[in-house]
Amino acid sequence: MIAYQSLEDVAAAMRQCRSCGLCTDQTRVVPGEGNARAKVMFIGEAPGFHEDQLGRPFVGAAGEFLEEMLASVNLERKDVFITNMVHARPPGNRDPLPEELDACWPYLAAQIQLLQPKVIVTLGRHSKSKFLPDVGPISIVHGQAFDRPNPATDAPHQWYVALFHPAAGLHKEELKEQIRQDFQVIYKVLAVTQASL
Ligand code: URA
Fold first, then answer.
1. 40 and 123 in contact (C-beta within 8 Å)?
2. Are β-strands 81-84 and 144-148 bridged in parallel, bridged antiparallel, or unpaired?
3. Strand arrangement, sheet containing 40-44
4. DSSP letters along 32-95, please?
5. Contact (CB, 8 A) for 39 and 195
6. How close is the Cα of 84 to the center of ligand 1, in Å?
7. Measured in angstroms, how far is the CA atom of residue 28 from the centroid of ligand 1?
8. Atom of ligand 1 at shortest distance to CA of 50?
Protein backbone atom coordinates (compact mmCIF):
# COMPACT_ATOMS: atom_id res chain seq x y z
CA MET A 1 0.00 0.00 0.00
CA ILE A 2 1.20 3.52 -0.81
CA ALA A 3 2.35 5.47 2.25
CA TYR A 4 0.81 8.93 1.97
CA GLN A 5 2.31 11.79 3.97
CA SER A 6 -0.89 13.73 4.57
CA LEU A 7 -4.64 13.76 4.06
CA GLU A 8 -4.07 16.32 1.28
CA ASP A 9 -1.83 13.80 -0.51
CA VAL A 10 -4.60 11.21 -0.30
CA ALA A 11 -7.11 13.71 -1.69
CA ALA A 12 -4.74 14.58 -4.54
CA ALA A 13 -4.34 10.88 -5.40
CA MET A 14 -8.13 10.44 -5.40
CA ARG A 15 -8.46 13.28 -7.90
CA GLN A 16 -6.09 11.45 -10.27
CA CYS A 17 -7.71 8.05 -9.73
CA ARG A 18 -9.10 6.11 -12.70
CA SER A 19 -9.45 2.74 -10.91
CA CYS A 20 -13.18 2.36 -11.51
CA GLY A 21 -15.83 3.82 -13.79
CA LEU A 22 -17.23 6.38 -11.32
CA CYS A 23 -14.82 9.08 -12.43
CA THR A 24 -16.44 9.30 -15.87
CA ASP A 25 -19.79 10.64 -14.58
CA GLN A 26 -18.72 12.68 -11.59
CA THR A 27 -18.47 16.46 -11.39
CA ARG A 28 -16.01 16.53 -8.49
CA VAL A 29 -14.21 13.99 -6.36
CA VAL A 30 -15.39 14.13 -2.73
CA PRO A 31 -12.30 13.16 -0.72
CA GLY A 32 -13.66 13.80 2.76
CA GLU A 33 -12.83 16.68 5.06
CA GLY A 34 -12.36 17.74 8.62
CA ASN A 35 -9.86 17.98 11.40
CA ALA A 36 -6.58 16.16 10.70
CA ARG A 37 -6.35 15.49 14.45
CA ALA A 38 -9.95 14.36 14.86
CA LYS A 39 -10.69 11.63 17.39
CA VAL A 40 -13.95 10.75 15.66
CA MET A 41 -14.24 9.72 12.02
CA PHE A 42 -17.62 9.38 10.29
CA ILE A 43 -17.81 7.06 7.30
CA GLY A 44 -20.86 7.33 5.06
CA GLU A 45 -21.66 5.61 1.81
CA ALA A 46 -21.06 7.77 -1.26
CA PRO A 47 -21.47 11.36 -2.42
CA GLY A 48 -24.91 12.40 -3.62
CA PHE A 49 -25.94 15.22 -5.96
CA HIS A 50 -24.95 18.16 -3.74
CA GLU A 51 -21.69 16.58 -2.61
CA ASP A 52 -20.76 15.91 -6.24
CA GLN A 53 -21.44 19.55 -7.12
CA LEU A 54 -19.36 20.97 -4.26
CA GLY A 55 -16.71 18.27 -3.76
CA ARG A 56 -17.58 18.13 -0.05
CA PRO A 57 -19.15 15.27 1.96
CA PHE A 58 -22.59 15.49 3.59
CA VAL A 59 -23.61 18.96 2.42
CA GLY A 60 -27.20 18.09 1.42
CA ALA A 61 -30.20 17.39 3.64
CA ALA A 62 -28.54 14.36 5.29
CA GLY A 63 -25.56 16.59 6.05
CA GLU A 64 -27.77 19.17 7.75
CA PHE A 65 -29.16 16.45 9.97
CA LEU A 66 -25.64 15.18 10.68
CA GLU A 67 -24.60 18.69 11.75
CA GLU A 68 -27.63 18.94 14.03
CA MET A 69 -26.63 15.66 15.69
CA LEU A 70 -23.01 16.75 16.01
CA ALA A 71 -24.21 19.87 17.81
CA SER A 72 -26.20 17.67 20.21
CA VAL A 73 -22.90 16.22 21.48
CA ASN A 74 -21.15 19.60 21.41
CA LEU A 75 -19.26 18.90 18.21
CA GLU A 76 -18.95 20.77 14.93
CA ARG A 77 -17.77 19.61 11.55
CA LYS A 78 -14.37 21.15 12.21
CA ASP A 79 -13.89 18.84 15.23
CA VAL A 80 -14.36 15.57 13.33
CA PHE A 81 -13.42 13.97 10.02
CA ILE A 82 -16.18 13.03 7.57
CA THR A 83 -15.60 10.70 4.65
CA ASN A 84 -17.28 7.98 2.61
CA MET A 85 -16.79 4.41 1.42
CA VAL A 86 -16.51 5.71 -2.16
CA HIS A 87 -15.44 9.20 -3.13
CA ALA A 88 -17.22 9.77 -6.43
CA ARG A 89 -20.98 9.86 -6.95
CA PRO A 90 -22.54 6.65 -8.27
CA PRO A 91 -24.86 7.56 -11.18
CA GLY A 92 -28.42 8.20 -10.01
CA ASN A 93 -27.30 7.64 -6.39
CA ARG A 94 -27.32 3.87 -6.86
CA ASP A 95 -25.51 1.69 -4.31
CA PRO A 96 -21.75 1.48 -4.86
CA LEU A 97 -20.74 -1.74 -6.62
CA PRO A 98 -18.37 -4.17 -4.89
CA GLU A 99 -15.59 -3.31 -7.37
CA GLU A 100 -16.08 0.42 -6.68
CA LEU A 101 -15.88 -0.18 -2.93
CA ASP A 102 -12.70 -2.22 -3.49
CA ALA A 103 -11.17 0.43 -5.75
CA CYS A 104 -11.75 3.18 -3.17
CA TRP A 105 -10.67 1.17 -0.12
CA PRO A 106 -6.92 2.03 -0.32
CA TYR A 107 -7.78 5.75 -0.07
CA LEU A 108 -10.12 5.27 2.88
CA ALA A 109 -7.57 2.99 4.54
CA ALA A 110 -4.91 5.68 4.06
CA GLN A 111 -7.17 8.30 5.65
CA ILE A 112 -7.71 6.02 8.65
CA GLN A 113 -3.98 5.30 8.95
CA LEU A 114 -3.14 9.00 8.93
CA LEU A 115 -5.93 10.02 11.29
CA GLN A 116 -5.75 7.10 13.76
CA PRO A 117 -9.23 7.97 15.09
CA LYS A 118 -10.32 6.85 18.55
CA VAL A 119 -13.80 6.12 17.27
CA ILE A 120 -15.02 5.20 13.81
CA VAL A 121 -18.72 5.89 13.33
CA THR A 122 -20.24 3.86 10.53
CA LEU A 123 -23.19 5.59 8.87
CA GLY A 124 -25.46 3.06 7.21
CA ARG A 125 -25.04 -0.50 6.10
CA HIS A 126 -22.16 -0.20 3.64
CA SER A 127 -19.59 1.06 6.13
CA LYS A 128 -21.00 -1.19 8.87
CA SER A 129 -20.53 -4.22 6.60
CA LYS A 130 -16.90 -3.30 5.92
CA PHE A 131 -15.81 -2.74 9.52
CA LEU A 132 -18.34 -4.80 11.48
CA PRO A 133 -19.22 -7.67 9.15
CA ASP A 134 -20.08 -10.10 11.93
CA VAL A 135 -22.25 -8.12 14.34
CA GLY A 136 -25.66 -8.43 12.74
CA PRO A 137 -27.84 -6.16 10.63
CA ILE A 138 -27.92 -2.40 11.17
CA SER A 139 -31.61 -2.70 12.15
CA ILE A 140 -30.43 -4.60 15.25
CA VAL A 141 -27.01 -3.10 16.04
CA HIS A 142 -27.68 0.61 15.48
CA GLY A 143 -26.61 2.66 18.47
CA GLN A 144 -24.20 -0.01 19.72
CA ALA A 145 -20.46 0.30 20.23
CA PHE A 146 -18.01 -2.46 19.29
CA ASP A 147 -14.35 -3.12 19.94
CA ARG A 148 -13.10 -4.91 16.82
CA PRO A 149 -9.94 -5.10 14.67
CA ASN A 150 -9.20 -2.30 12.25
CA PRO A 151 -8.64 -3.61 8.70
CA ALA A 152 -6.92 -0.36 7.68
CA THR A 153 -4.27 -0.29 10.40
CA ASP A 154 -4.28 -4.01 11.34
CA ALA A 155 -4.72 -2.88 14.95
CA PRO A 156 -6.54 -5.58 16.96
CA HIS A 157 -8.63 -3.00 18.82
CA GLN A 158 -10.66 -0.16 17.39
CA TRP A 159 -13.84 1.39 18.77
CA TYR A 160 -16.75 1.57 16.37
CA VAL A 161 -20.24 2.98 16.73
CA ALA A 162 -22.82 1.73 14.24
CA LEU A 163 -25.49 4.28 13.27
CA PHE A 164 -28.29 4.37 10.75
CA HIS A 165 -27.45 6.55 7.78
CA PRO A 166 -28.72 10.11 8.49
CA ALA A 167 -30.67 10.06 5.21
CA ALA A 168 -32.75 7.19 6.60
CA GLY A 169 -34.23 9.55 9.19
CA LEU A 170 -35.10 12.38 6.84
CA HIS A 171 -38.64 11.31 6.04
CA LYS A 172 -39.44 9.25 9.14
CA GLU A 173 -39.72 11.22 12.37
CA GLU A 174 -39.54 8.05 14.52
CA LEU A 175 -36.30 6.95 12.91
CA LYS A 176 -34.93 10.47 13.19
CA GLU A 177 -35.51 10.40 16.93
CA GLN A 178 -33.86 6.97 17.15
CA ILE A 179 -30.79 8.29 15.30
CA ARG A 180 -30.64 11.27 17.67
CA GLN A 181 -30.64 8.89 20.64
CA ASP A 182 -28.09 6.55 19.07
CA PHE A 183 -25.78 9.47 18.43
CA GLN A 184 -25.30 9.99 22.16
CA VAL A 185 -23.39 6.68 22.28
CA ILE A 186 -20.46 8.42 20.57
CA TYR A 187 -20.07 10.61 23.63
CA LYS A 188 -20.05 7.60 25.93
CA VAL A 189 -17.46 5.77 23.86
CA LEU A 190 -15.24 8.85 23.83
CA ALA A 191 -15.46 8.90 27.61
CA VAL A 192 -14.41 5.24 27.68
CA THR A 193 -11.40 5.91 25.48
CA GLN A 194 -10.70 8.97 27.68
CA ALA A 195 -10.23 11.00 24.55
CA SER A 196 -10.52 14.72 24.86
CA LEU A 197 -11.70 16.66 21.84
N1 URA B 1 -24.66 10.34 1.82
C2 URA B 1 -23.46 9.77 2.04
O3 URA B 1 -23.36 8.61 2.37
N4 URA B 1 -22.39 10.54 1.93
C5 URA B 1 -22.43 11.82 1.62
O6 URA B 1 -21.39 12.46 1.53
C7 URA B 1 -23.70 12.39 1.39
C8 URA B 1 -24.80 11.64 1.51
1. no
2. unpaired
3. 33-34, 81-84, 40-44, 119-123, 158-163, 144-148
4. -EE-TT-SEEEEES---HHHHHHT-SS-SHHHHHHHHHHHHTT--GGGSEEEESSSSPPGGGPP
5. yes
6. 7
7. 14
8. 7
Helices (H) and strands (E) in the chain, counts: 7, 6
What ligand 1 atom has the least distance to the C-alpha of 165? 3
176-192 b/e (C-beta count within 10 Å ≥ 16 → b) = bebbeebbebbbebbee
What is the C-alpha separation between 36 and 51, in angstroms, rounded? 20
What are the pLDDT digits (tens) for 4-30? 999 999 999 999 999 999 999 999 999
pLDDT-derived band at 108, boundaries 50, 70, 90: very high
Instruction: Tell me, in angstroms, the distance from the centre of ligand 1 to residue 21's CA.
Output: 19
Phi/psi of residue 43, nearest 5 degrees: -125, 110
C-alpha 108/C-alpha 104 separation (Å) is: 7
Ligand 1 proximal residues by C-beta, below 6 Å: 44-48, 51, 57-58, 62, 84, 167
Distances (CA, A) of 153 to 31, 110, 157, 180: 19, 9, 10, 30
Residues in the chain: 197
Each residue's pLDDT tens digit, 44-72: 999 999 999 999 999 999 999 999 999 99
